[in-house]
Amino acid sequence: RKDDMANLQTIIADLERKKAEEEELAKKRAEEAAAAAKSGKTKTVGSVKYKEPVYNEKSNFAQYKGRLPYPVPGKIVVSFGNQYNAALGTTTRNTGVDIQSREGAEVHSVAKGKVSMISWLRRLGNTVIIDHGEGFYTVYAHLSEINVSVDQLVAAGQTIANLDESDEGKAILHFEIYKDREAVDPAGWLR
Question: Which of 101, 132, 100 is nearest to 116 (CA)?
């Protein structure tokens, strides 16, 4: 589980780095286009002037703190933070919350965004990461029947997958929220 949590943090950091590089490249292209427009040079294809569209996703995710719906119906059974296992005498850090529901339950995106990654992690199984803009990401794990694809735009409440059975034989969604590469407690965001 520690390995999966470390992998998730690395994945989020890589996604943020890649997005920053893409934004820098888009900014450079926009500056070059503006300079070309000022100098009177325009790019035309046939008789049509070509203008490069710019994707600039502005997030309103932060305004929903404390008001986000649960991604699945259920209750939080493992909270955010350090978890002590008395039987093993170990402490592990949970970077999200675990929500118990029923096997096959529909998993919904809590807000609009863009699917950044679909992956399989050893302890978390099938995992979907959604980018909500301005450094906000949500992570959904223990999934089956994933209904979205990478780079797909999703709406708030859209079904992204179904819930699979976890290693413990229960249907538990592992759900995380990241802001600027740091995991934050989802319980403070959910209503």
Answer: 132
